[in-house]
Design goal:
It contains 15 helices and 13 strands. With about 450 residues, the protein is α/β, with parallel strands linked by helices. It folds into 2 domains: about 150 residues, NAD(P)-binding Rossmann-like Domain (Rossmann fold, 3-Layer(aba) Sandwich); about 230 residues, 3-Layer(aba) Sandwich (Rossmann fold). Helix 7 packs across helix 15, helix 9 crosses helix 10 and helix 10 runs parallel beside helix 12. Nicotinamide-adenine-dinucleotide binds next to helix 7 and helix 13. This is 3-oxoacyl-ACP reductase.
Length: about 450
């Protein structure tokens, strides 16, 4: 559904009027396209209080393709290495680094602060490193003009595991991701032969792929070189066929809650699966007092139980190849809760529990990562059905003052799916423009 307000503020009279009335000022986001594949300007590399990454960061920043500089009048991105901050006083280095330059960041620019994991043995280091989280989340809320801010925590020693993450966060692909904290393990990235099509030779299956976010995910994975299988319920067969045809993908009409769903998926991928995206989801909203047991059960069954069942069965059968990537779809409702959505929010919070618990074991036992996207307000048929006032509130109550698009969730999923994202495991990344809900 078109966001007319965003169009209005994109015009000079609209901007003038809304500014005079003190209304939100969303900036049209610049997303990835062949014409705009990267940020438009240099990447400013700053260090605040020493680094635990030595000289490993420079080549990783250079790999983004941006011009990396130590001074810039109008940077398109700023990376601050704050891994060496271990005391409260040391946080002054962060202020000293960013205070003079934050205003010069271009519209739609990116700030990424690099930190390290708060230590369970050193509460001074833990305090200083945890402080970075509050800093980044506040910065995301105040920079405005379509710019974003994130914190990436790295294991000390090497920045190499962060390459795919920095390429994503410092690009137009992450336009609707802000205020996030991404914790990386020290796992070395799997080699990437071609960063333009990193999924070449890989097979990906997306559930709920006939339309909406799932269709966008399938499209982006195909763009990145994957052979895609689009799964959706048989009732959506026609739409599913159209989506699959458009992408040169295979259609698999199948209800994911069917008892033999995992076997049928395995039969459809004789060479195994490299990317498994659990996107299918439903809502059956009612307040708890009015909710019949069947509405409760349907939502838990589709959104959570089938995800648990198929994940277990496909991992146990060895259908997910080593180096595989499992991506589940949560929601900010699973973090913040929502009136009338006890069933939905429970299912999506359950997805987060699944991801956090399984991720380390899946990596150790199968060489597979498990992560979740948690979309906020995304412009789809699901949200078009929301009453006008609630829809407007959902769109504006975030740092970017607008709804996201299915492509934003898809780009985040594609980053998780990359061979080079081995160090991204057990993460729940919100694609919500830093929604105030559950912030
Ligand atoms: N749209 C949003 O703002 C938003 C926000 C947060 C989370 N999400 C989540 O993102 C995912 C996609 O949402 P969407 O907005 O694209 O929804 P949508 O309703 O447009 O698409 C969901 C798809 O899943 C399919 N599906 C439903 N039950 C299935 C089953 N049993 N087996 C196979 N396929 C099934 C549907 O047929 C449909 O094609 C869902 O998990 C949803 O909960 C969406």
């Amino acid at each position: 559904m078109a966001d007319r307000y965003l169009h209005l503020t994109g015009t000079a009279p609209g901007r003038f009027l809304t500014r005079r009335l003190g209304l939100p000022q969303p900036v049209g986001l610049r997303r990835w396209s062949l014409a705009t594949p990267s940020l438009d300007g240099p990447l400013l590399h700053l260090t605040a209080g020493g680094s635990l990454l030595g000289d490993t960061l420079a080549p990783v920043l250079a790999a983004t393709g941006l011009e990396v500089v130590r001074r810039a009048d109008r940077p398109a991105g700023i990376v601050v290495d704050a891994t060496g901050i271990t005391t409260a006083a040391g946080l002054g280095g962060l202020h000293a680094a960013l205070h003079p330059v934050v205003r010069s960041l271009v519209t739609g620019g990116r700030i990424v602060v690099l930190g390290t994991h708060p230590s369970p043995e050193d509460h001074h280091q833990a305090a200083a490193q945890q402080a970075l989280e509050g800093f980044v989340r506040s910065l995301g809320k105040e920079i405005g003009r379509g710019a974003t801010a994130q914190l990436v925590r790295l294991a000390p020693g090497s920045a190499a595991p962060a390459e795919s993450t920095l390429r994503f966060l410092l690009s137009p692909r992450s336009a609707y991701v802000s205020g996030q904290v991404v914790e990386l393990t020290g796992a070395a990235p799997d080699p990437v032969a071609d960063w333009v099509a990193p999924l070449t030779g890989r097979t990906a299956l997306v559930t709920g792929a006939a339309r909406g976010i799932g269709a966008a995910v399938a499209s982006v994975l195909a763009r990145d070189g994957a052979q895609v299988i689009c799964l959706d319920v048989p009732q959506a067969g026609e739409e599913l066929g159209r989506t699959a045809d458009r992408l040169g993908a295979t259609a698999l009409p199948l209800d994911i809650t069917a008892p033999d769903a995992a076997e049928r998926i395995a039969a459809a991928v004789p060479g195994g699966l490299d990317v498994l995206v659990h996107n299918a989801g439903i809502t059956r909203d009612r307040r708890l007092a009015n909710m019949p047991a069947e509405r409760w059960a349907q939502v838990i069954e589709v959104n959570l139980d089938s995800v648990l069942r198929t994940t277990d069965a496909l991992l146990e059968a060895g259908t997910v190849n080593r180096g595989g990537r499992i991506v589940a779809t949560a929601s900010i409702a699973g973090i913040a809760g929502n009136n009338g959505q006890t069933n939905y929010a429970a299912s999506k919070a359950g997805v987060i529990g699944l991801v956090r618990s399984l991720a380390p074991r899946a990596a150790a036992g199968h060489g597979v990562t498990v992560n979740a996207v948690a979309p906020g307000f995304i412009e789809t048929k699901m949200t078009a059905a929301v009453p006008l006032l609630i829809r407007e509130a959902g769109r504006r109550m975030n740092s970017l003052s607008q709804g996201g698009l299915p492509i934003d969730v898809a780009e985040t999923t594609a980053w998780f799916a990359q061979p080079a994202s081995t160090a991204v495991n057990g993460q729940v990344v919100r694609v919500c423009g830093q929604s105030l809900l559950g912030a």
